[in-house]
Specification:
- Pfam families: Peptidase_S11.
- A hairpin with a 5-residue loop joins β11 and β12 (about 295-305).
- The protein is α+β, with helices and mostly antiparallel strands.
- It is elongated and about 105 Å long.
- It has a single domain (about 70-325), classed as DD-peptidase/beta-lactamase superfamily (Beta-lactamase, 3-Layer(aba) Sandwich), CATH 3.40.710.
- Helices cover about 45% and strands about 20% of the residues.
- The strands form 4 sheets. It has a 5-stranded antiparallel sheet with strand order 2-1-12-11-10, with helices on both faces. It has a 3-stranded antiparallel sheet with strand order 3-7-6.
Amino acid sequence: MGNETNSLKKIWSINNRTKYFVYVLIGLSVVSVTLFALLIIGKNSLNKKEAALAKEKVNYFENINLKAKGVIVFDIINEREIFSKNGEVPLPLASLTKILTAIITSEKLDDNQKIKITDEYLTPEGDSKLIVGDTWQVADLRDFTLLTSSNDGAFALATISEIKNNQNQNNIQISGDDLRIQFIKNMNDTAKKIGLSNSKFFNEHGLDKDIDKGGAYGSAYDMALLFKYALENHPEILEATRYKNLEFTSAEGSYFANNTNIFVDKIPNLIASKTGFTDLAGGNLVIAFNADINRPIIISVLGSTEEGRFTDVLQLIEATIKQLSIL
């Protein structure tokens, strides 16, 4: 009996020690697993931070080769610059000037108002195939002017706008050059209202005044602000600029019009565009496109070449989409 009792005690003692070691092993295992998990989490967290820092350092605009002298890529929703190259430097605007002309005439004239083309509306520099005696609706002439960059159309819209303005003020004696002076003053006043701090306008179409003086000056940033103002307040004036070509009908006949933006069908999710080119200005182009769902971006390019303005914009679009994907 005594031997049996001693044997049982030994077995009990061995079992207790075994349980103890098992518990210790379990405890060590739990600690090891916990430490390993914390190590993995810490490593993953560090990797994520390193990846985030790496993303922050990536600049897809760094290595693109631009011909333009002034560039802005502007995020409309967040109202911030994504990229800038001499974005605040005033440069000749050429036909980007017509955007402001269209804005002002849209604020002063009814879209359905009729305009009869007369000799005085056909400027010496114009060659837009407008025919004396044809009658246009304001909206159609405005769309035609922006799509084809018609100098005659811009001149006609500006003149009619000031004639109506003077009629409203019972001042019907002003005509000719005085009307242009009034309209150009209105352009500069409106530019200040919009916030175009580096812009100055000397005519309604943007043609160079001579070999060393442009018809208007502004920065790439100012043109982005002007385009933003038009899109937010008068989106209808830019709608036609999304199309490669359109047919317009006056009271007397039809006009087939090609967009001066020859890359219009190469720009993804295009919202609007306007070209400009003179010998002094070089190639200008401002566009708005959706980089993503409801992510409108404006790209403004000044002082490029006639062909380079288009390739510059395509490069900037590609870089913008990539840059936004890591933000």
